[in-house]
């Protein structure tokens, strides 16, 4: 039953006490974005796909599984009777990053990316051809449906641990292997850098 | 110097008050007319200041601008055709004659009255305490009229509450 | 007539108002941000102190839109009529009293003009800003603006009465309408002698300057900023600055009337303009604290609160002050204790009664 | 004394800060009293039901995220439950428990938003909302950890889940579950007894018990009116019959009751989470199915207790790879139809918070 007591102003006073308590003693949770960055989830479905031309057999499963029909593939048959993707284009402007293409790839040739800064000035540059789709620079694969990468990525920072990485307060989990094969996205996202925010 | 300044101020305020009063009557847009009425009240408050009646000037603004004119504006906002103003009616001629007669009689009365004149300089003193004493002093003041007016206002307030009380 | 005095004070007041209004905007955003565990603007300049400048530049460069069906003259005049009174109020504020100060001594009270009817002047002038808001609401030819203007009228007219009655208590104690005299008489801050009066005045003033929880005039979630919905660019900036100038005015008046103006409490330290500034900021902080805690009341509850809660209390308060004035002098501390007790008791009793007669319509 | 007054018609929306999206109310006012209200919907219509007919069963899951975008996980859940019912697909127990965990996390998150925005509509300058956002952010972190996204999760799959949760998920969730009751206490301290909130919400926007049932309302709106109806109890799905929790009901059906029901439901959700974490079995999280699911010919209605009410997917299969027809019973839409009955005779400000207390999401209303 909802409480039906009549109050004489103590409710407002309680509220004022709570806000002043927050004013004085609670930590600020703002992350000042361009300078401070949170470590994203190991499974992040970031805003680009990473394509591995070596592993791709141009089977087009990803194109078929895409709900939007965003993946455009044209193939040709090589002399050794394998197929090769001549055109492999993804329209990121229409993508909703559901990850179904990554999930369906039978050869682990396509991965979700880890970056989340892919704004451009025109829509044409959102259609990404295969030359730009390969892993390079900060275009690195995430662990979404790719457990082999997931192990190597830095742990996500969680607000519940004050914005620090999830590994800090859970010593029962072994620290991750050194990120050799799949490096973190950039230098800025090291957990040590991130810890400044939590203590602020 | 100060006299000249006061004269200039008086004439400016007089022109402003008469001009805005005329505009109130002549303008078709009722809302603008009400705004000009406010400026008329202001000019009159300024006239009070030139006469050294600081308390009265402030009360003029507080009561007439702050309360009466504002309520007038509220009334106008609730009217539908405020922008078009009041239409011509057959009362126009009668009202014109009545106002001309009133003007003539007032001018006549002003001219006939033997106004007491003083040649001594009136010192500009704070008037608040003097007004208070005049109103509430037991011997030399107007306590009885003051209290009668209070009772009248109280009755009006109660009457207003009774009128708008929810049934 | 000392023309130099006038010119200097015009400059001082304009500088005082504009700098403090600018810093109020920043302080508000930073403090409310801190209440909400955010940082607030901190990008422009160190700690964001240039943010108001950036805002001003932005707003000046905005397109000045005049909607096609507005009453142009009234539409353009409205921001000026709203802004000007807020600055005019400072003409009578005593920034420092005559006599020994902390850093320098003054021969006369530091105010532009020490009017004998200073308190009346403040209320008279502040009632003008309503006219500006009504003009804006009417001339904008917008239904939300009209609703906002109607709310403004109802709110301002209602809250002026308990406010003036509450300040009358101060006037009775001080025996003068002049602000300099009122500050002179405050050997102890009048908030102790007049706790109930302060309570009523502060709530009334919060409503008069459209601050939460009485910000119905703007009520973004209901009438989408009300009267200034059709304003843009510099005209909007005038409204915006006017609102903060009015907040500054209310903080200043509260400091002068109830907190002893430029005096340090009990005269422990020499008086100075700095104490006034500290008090102003303190009052503004309380306003922000309330703003960041409370939701808005409804328009009929607002009116009920003014007429059924504040008005009777202010009348009782006035009566009590008058009765206490009959006592021989020298009972300061007993009277303080009595008044604080009475204030708390009266507020609680009246709040209870207010609920029971259905003022707040709690089912 | 009866003054003749002129009613004014105000179009609130589609661009209005408090209509929670592109929703329009044509309101007829007499002064500030509402005489009539006509909801106008359809500004966000995207034809989701029709799109389902041209997507495979799996491909439609990401589109369900876009319905009630504040509770995407439950949309996923309702849809996959309907498809599993249609295809008689068994779900492994670990997946069932994880689904319950996700659904209850989503309920807390959605209720935090609902209450926060309702208070915001009431004019509290974002403070309660931001305090609630802080907790929601922690939940979003956990969702991101599980499935890589913070808003459109696409986590449920037909026959289970897309992933198992990572090892660091459960410790973090346990920490959240242990802290959350304290935060709910804080919200209560800030809001529950606040006189202004009481005055604004008590006895305002009343939806009577009969009208609530007749208008087919569900969720906190129905329970606020005093009807003890919760699909988790009435037609238990997943493992809700193995968990202990209570259904809060209001008495009057006013805004305060709906607010109160949401606050208590959050506490109950925390309770469910505690039990589900404890009982969580190990094992598979997904039944092996062919890549293209082809349910047998027939029709099925899968419904769950979403945060906003009964969310149902009615799916007809013609043994193809895509549904022949998919109908979505959106709780927001059906609760919204009772709006007019709640607000006529109230004031403008009441209409805004009544709308806020219904907790609509336009993505779901217009579909």
Structure description:
The complex is a heterotetramer of chains A (200), B (167), C (363) and D (367). Chain A is of the alpha+beta class and 200 residues long. Chain A has two domains: 28-43 and 150-200, no CATH class; 45-141, Alpha-Beta Plaits, CATH 3.30.70. Chain A has six helices and seven strands, in the order H-E-H-E-E-H-E-E-H-H-E-E-H. In chain A, the strands form three sheets. In chain A, strands 2-3-5 form a three-stranded antiparallel sheet. A two-stranded antiparallel sheet of chain A has the order 1-4. Residues 168-200 of chain A have low confidence and may be disordered. Chain B folds into two domains: 1-84, NADH-ubiquinone/plastoquinone oxidoreductase chain 6, subunit NuoJ (Four Helix Bundle (Hemerythrin (Met), subunit A), Up-down Bundle), CATH 1.20.120.1200; 128-167. Helices cover 74% and strands 0% of the residues of chain B. Chain B contains six helices and no strands. The model of chain B has no long low-confidence stretch (mean pLDDT 81). The mean pLDDT of chain C is 81. Chain C has one domain. Chain C is mainly α and 363 residues long. The radius of gyration of chain C is 21 Å and the shape is globular. Chain D is an alpha+beta fold. In chain D, 47% of the residues lie in helices and 13% in strands. In chain D, the strands form three sheets. A three-stranded antiparallel sheet of chain D has the order 1-2-3. Chain D has a three-stranded antiparallel sheet with strand order 6-7-8. In chain D, helix 4 runs antiparallel to helix 5 (127-147) and helix 4 runs antiparallel to helix 14. The termini of chain D are far apart. Chains in contact: A-C, A-D, B-C, B-D, C-D. Chains A and D meet through helix 1 and helix 3 of A and helix 2, helix 5, helix 6, helix 7 and helix 11 of D.
């Amino acid at each position: 039953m909802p409480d039906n007591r009549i109050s004489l102003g103590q409710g407002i006073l309680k509220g004022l006490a709570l806000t002043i308590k927050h004013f004085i003693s609670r930590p600020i949770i703002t992350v000042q974005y361009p300078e401070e960055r949170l470590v994203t989830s190991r499974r992040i479905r970031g805003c680009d796909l990473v394509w591995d031309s070596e592993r791709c057999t141009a089977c087009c499963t990803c194109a078929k599984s895409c709900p939007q029909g965003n993946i455009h593939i044209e193939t040709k048959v090589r002399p050794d009777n394998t197929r090769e993707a001549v055109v492999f284009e993804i329209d990121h402007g229409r993508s909703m990053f559901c990850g179904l293409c990554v999930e369906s790839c039978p050869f682990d040739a396509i991965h979700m990316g880890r970056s989340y800064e892919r704004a451009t000035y025109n829509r044409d540059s959102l259609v990404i051809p295969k030359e730009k789709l390969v892993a390079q620079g900060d275009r690195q694969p995430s662990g979404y449906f790719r457990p082999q990468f997931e192990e190597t990525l830095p742990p996500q920072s969680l607000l519940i641990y004050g914005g620090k990485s999830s590994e800090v307060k859970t010593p029962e989990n072994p620290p991750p292997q050194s990120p050799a094969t799949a490096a973190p996205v950039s230098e800025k996202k090291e957990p040590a850098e991130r810890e400044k925010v939590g203590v602020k | 110097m100060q006299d000249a300044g006061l004269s200039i101020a008086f004439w400016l305020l007089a022109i402003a008050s008469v001009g805005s009063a005329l505009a109130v009557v002549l303008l078709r847009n009722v809302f603008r007319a009400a705004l000009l009425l406010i400026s008329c009240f202001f000019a009159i408050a300024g006239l009070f200041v030139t006469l050294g009646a600081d308390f009265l000037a402030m009360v003029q603004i507080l009561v007439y601008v702050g309360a009466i004119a504002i309520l007038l504006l509220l009334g106008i906002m609730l009217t539908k055709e405020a922008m078009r103003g009041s239409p011509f009616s057959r009362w126009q001629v009668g009202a014109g004659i009545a106002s001309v007669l009133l003007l003539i009689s007032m001018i006549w009365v002003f001219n006939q009255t033997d106004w007491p004149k003083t040649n001594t300089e009136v010192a500009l003193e704070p008037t608040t305490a003097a007004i208070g004493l005049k109103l509430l002093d037991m011997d030399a003041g107007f306590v009885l009229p003051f209290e009668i007016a209070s009772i009248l206002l109280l009755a009006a307030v109660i009457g207003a509450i009774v009128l708008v009380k929810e049934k | 007539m000392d023309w130099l005095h006038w010119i200097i004070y015009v400059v001082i007041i304009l500088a005082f108002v504009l700098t403090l209004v600018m810093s109020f905007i920043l302080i508000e955003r930073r403090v409310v941000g801190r209440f909400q565990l955010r940082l607030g603007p901190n990008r422009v300049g160190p700690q964001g102190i240039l943010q108001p400048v950036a805002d001003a530049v932005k707003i000046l460069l905005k397109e000045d839109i005049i909607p096609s069906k507005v009453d142009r003259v009234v539409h353009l005049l409205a921001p000026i009529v709203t802004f000007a009174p807020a600055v005019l109020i400072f003409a009578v504020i005593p920034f420092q009293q005559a006599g020994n100060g902390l850093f320098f001594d003054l021969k006369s009270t530091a105010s532009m003009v020490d009017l004998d009817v200073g308190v009346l002047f403040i209320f008279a002038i502040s009632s003008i800003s309503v006219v500006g808001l009504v003009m804006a609401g009417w001339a904008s030819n917008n239904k939300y603006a009209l609703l906002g203007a109607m709310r403004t009228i109802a709110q301002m007219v209602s809250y002026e009465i308990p406010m003036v009655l509450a300040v009358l208590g101060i006037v009775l104690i001080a025996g003068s309408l002049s602000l300099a005299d009122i500050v002179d008489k405050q050997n102890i801050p009048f908030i102790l002698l007049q706790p109930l009066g302060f309570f009523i005045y502060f709530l009334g003033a919060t409503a008069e300057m459209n601050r939460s929880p009485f910000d119905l005039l703007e009520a973004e979630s209901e009438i989408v900023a009300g009267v200034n919905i059709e304003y843009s660019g510099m005209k909007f900036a005038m409204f915006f600055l006017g609102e903060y100038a009015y907040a500054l005015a209310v903080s200043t008046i509260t400091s002068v009337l109830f907190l002893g103006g430029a005096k340090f409490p009990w005269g422990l330290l020499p008086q100075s303009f700095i104490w006034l500034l500290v008090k102003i900021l303190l009052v503004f902080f309380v306003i922000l604290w309330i703003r960041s805690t409370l939701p808005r009341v409804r328009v009929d509850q607002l009116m009920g609160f003014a007429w059924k809660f504040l008005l009777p209390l202010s009348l009782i308060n006035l009566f009590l002050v008058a009765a206490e004035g009959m006592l021989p002098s020298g009972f300061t501390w007993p009277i303080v204790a009595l008044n604080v007790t009475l204030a708390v008791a009266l507020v609680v009793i009246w709040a209870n009664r207010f609920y029971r007669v259905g003022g707040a319509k709690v089912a | 004394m009866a003054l003749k007054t002129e009613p004014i018609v105000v179009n609130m929306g589609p661009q209005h800060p408090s209509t929670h999206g592109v929703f329009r109310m044509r309101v007829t006012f007499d002064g500030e009293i509402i005489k009539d209200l006509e909801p106008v919907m359809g500004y966000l219509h995207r034809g989701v039901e029709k799109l389902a007919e041209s997507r495979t069963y799996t491909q439609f899951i990401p589109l369900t995220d876009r319905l009630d975008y504040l509770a995407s996980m439950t949309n996923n859940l309702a849809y996959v439950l309907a498809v599993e019912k249609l295809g008689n697909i068994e779900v492994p127990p670990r997946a069932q428990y994880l689904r319950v965990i996700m659904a209850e996390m989503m309920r807390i998150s959605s209720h935090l938003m609902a209450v926060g925005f309702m208070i915001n509509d009431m004019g509290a300058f974002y403070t309660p909302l931001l305090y609630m956002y802080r907790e929601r952010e922690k939940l979003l972190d956990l969702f991101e950890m599980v499935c890589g996204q913070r808003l459109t999760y696409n986590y449920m799959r037909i026959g289970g889940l897309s992933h198992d949760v990572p090892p660091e998920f459960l410790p973090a969730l346990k920490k959240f579950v242990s802290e959350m009751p304290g935060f709910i206490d804080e919200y209560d301290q800030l809001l529950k007894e606040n006189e202004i909130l009481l005055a604004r919400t008590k006895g305002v926007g009343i939806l009577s018990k009969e009208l609530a049932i007749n208008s087919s309302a569900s969720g906190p709106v129905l329970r606020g009116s005093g009807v003890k109806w919760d699909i988790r109890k009435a037609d238990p799905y997943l493992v809700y019959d193995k968990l202990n929790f209570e259904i809060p009901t209001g008495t009057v059906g006013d805004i305060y009751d709906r607010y109160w029901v949401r606050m208590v439901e959050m506490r109950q959700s925390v309770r469910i989470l505690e039990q589900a974490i404890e009982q969580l079995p190990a094992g598979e999280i997904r039944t092996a199915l062919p890549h293209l699911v082809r349910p047998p010919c027939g029709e099925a209605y899968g419904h769950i207790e979403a945060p906003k009410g009964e969310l149902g997917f009615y799916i007809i299969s013609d043994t193809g790879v895509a549904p022949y027809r998919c109908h979505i019973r959106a709780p927001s839409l059906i609760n919204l139809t009772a709006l007019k009955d709640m607000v006529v005779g109230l004031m403008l400000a009441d209409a805004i918070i009544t709308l806020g207390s219904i907790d609509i999401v336009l993505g779901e209303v217009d579909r």
